[in-house]
Amino acid sequence: MSLGLAFVAVLIVAVAAGWVGYRRARRLRAAGPLHSLPTYHGAHVALWAAIPALLLMAAWAPMQSRIVDQTVLSSPEGQALPQSDMQRGAILSEAREIARGQRDQGFNPESATIAPRIREAETRYSTLAALAAVLAAIAAAAIAVRKSVPEFRARTGVERWMMTLLFVASLIAVLTTLGILLSLMFESLRFFRMYPATSFFFGLEWSPQTAIRADQAGSSGAFGAVPLLWGTFFIGAIIAMIVAVPLGLMSAIYLTQYAPPRVRAWLKPILEILAGVPTVVYGYFAALTVAPAVRDFGLAIGISSASSESALAAGVVMGIMIIPFVSSMSDDSIAAVPQAMRDGSLAMGATTSETIRKVLLPAALPGVMGGILLAVSRAIGETMIVVMAAGLAANLTLNPFESVTTVTTQIVGLLTGEQEFDSPKTLAAFALGLALFLITLLLNLIALHIVRRYREQYE
Q1: What letter would DSSP give residue 80?
Q2: Full-prediction pTM beyond 0.85?
Q3: Phi then psi for 273, rounded to 5 degrees?
Q4: Is 208 contained in some domain?
Q5: I need a surface site. Which of 58, 198, 423, 449 has the fewest CB within 10 A?
Q6: Residue pLDDT, tens place only, 398-407
Q7: Which residues contact 313 (CB under 8 A, 6 or more apart)?
């Protein structure tokens, strides 16, 4: 029995146990008063049957692969494998894929010999884990059913279980963020041991190509991140926002204040479709349509340095991509302004445009600014549009018709292909990721601060 079938079996046991607990509570209520409703008794039994068994399966799943490998390596076939950890790991990986039917044969002949052992061990341990989970569900359900007595506080137990599940769900998000931050920090510290942090954060030259031997030219690359950070802000926070903020804000004003209900019902979903378009599609549009048009426009107005890969092309398309973010947040914020404020302004003789400029927009400022800063965070983390339309040149320039690059683009370039994670070139990607993480975190904190500060003013 696989763990997937065991998961289904545990759910079936939980549902059946919940029904038994519900029916038992119904019979008890017929004989006298109950502290909790029969539905709470049934839910309490079902939770007791499901959660411990599922936790057991979740704890076993990551350990099974290691136990299977140890069992296989202790067999005669496993002891005949090469002693090199790298070769042994490659053979086990191929044998595991053969055993699971993902491939017919591997590059190493030993993998075909080891595959039956892996298949047998995985089947045996999966069956044992599945049976243990089902037995644990049945045992926990039996204990929970016996607790169903008239004075038992089943509702309190169910609420305690739900509070625990909600706490674990919120804790997973926090731990995931912490794990991302720690993984970036550890690798970044390795990079800063090889390259000074001051030169990284304040250096004006980015040339990560390092030589293979120390006596070759360029044996120590230049990792100044200022051109990358400038390109990221130039494209994502300046050009894209010049496009997205006016169009998104004006579309939100029209949809909330001027558009008839039928027009709004059509235009708002169409506008929000832009948020679901894959970024690679925007990249194709930028590379094949916008970038040539921008280059021709630059040459027509006398800018000889206009390139087919430019910051302006990537920034314009990125601004179009994030219009729905600005528009949706502004729309919701303007619509949330109390109607009494709008009616009071109109009653005092203000026109609709004056009401929008002097009443609605100031009152909706927290949501509007929060949406803009979240859109900036989305823009500076974009990769595909910049790769396909802005190029890879790390230029520190104010000319939007020249090619620039961003942090995310360089991360892709540094980690593409077979790379050794012990050189400054590769570890620089983690330092760039840490810098980008801190920048987006700072923007989110600023957005949260603005929302809280101005919300207190207008509530």
Answers
A1: T
A2: no
A3: -60, -30
A4: no
A5: 198
A6: 888 888 888 8
A7: 286, 290, 291, 293, 294, 295, 389, 390
Neighbours of 289 (CB within 10 A): 13
pLDDT digits (tens, 9 = 90+) for 272-312: 888 788 888 888 888 888 888 888 888 888 887 788 888 88
Domain count, the chain: 2
According to the model, what pLDDT value does residue 246 have?
A: 92
Cross-strand bridge partners of residue 206: 223
> What does 408-443 look like in DSSP terms, one character per residue?
HHHHHHHHSSS--TTSHHHHHHHHHHHHHHHHHHHH
d(Cα 313, Cα 317) in Å, to the nearest integer? 6
Query: Token pair for residue 425?
Result: 């070139």
What stretches of 336-402 show up as alpha helix (H) in DSSP? Answer: 339-347, 352-355, 361-363, 365-380, 384-389
Q: Is the domain of 319 the same as that of 447?
A: yes
State the residue range of the domain holding 373: 222-458
- Is residue 195 domain-resident? no
Within 8 A by CB and 6+ apart from 306, the residues are: 294, 295, 297, 298, 299, 401, 402
Tens digit of each residue's pLDDT (9 = 90 or more) over 148-160: 778 778 888 888 8
Q: Could you tell me the two tokens for 298?
A: 């630059």
Q: How far is CA 413 from CA 226, 310, 420, 427, 441, in A?
A: 17, 18, 14, 12, 24
Domain presence at residue 228: yes
Average confidence score pLDDT of the chain: 82
**End of a domain among 103, 134, 152?**
152
The tally of CA atoms less than 13 A away on the side-chain side of residue 314 is 35
pLDDT digits (tens, 9 = 90+) for 376-396: 888 888 888 888 888 777 888
What lies within 8 Å, CB to CB, of 100 at 6+ separation is: 119
Calculate Rg over the CA atoms of the chain.
30
Which whole-number Å values give the CA distances from 55 to 61, 156, 165, in the listed order?
10, 22, 12
